Amino acid sequence: MGGLSLQHPWAFAFGLLGNVISFMTYLAPLPTFYRIYRSKSTQGFQSVPYVVALFSAMLWIYYALLKSDELLLITINSAGCVIEAIYIVMYLAYAPKQAKMFTAKILLLLNVGVFGLILLLTLLLAGGEKRVVMLGWVCVGFSVSVFVAPLSVIRLVVRTRSVEFMPFSLSLSLTVSAVVWFLYGLLIKDKYVALPNILGFAFGVIQMGLYALYCNATTRQAPKEVDGPLPEHVINVAKLGPMATIELNMPAAVQPPTKENIVACASGESKEISVEKVDMATNVEHV
Question: pTM of the entire structure?
Answer without folding.
Answer: 0.65
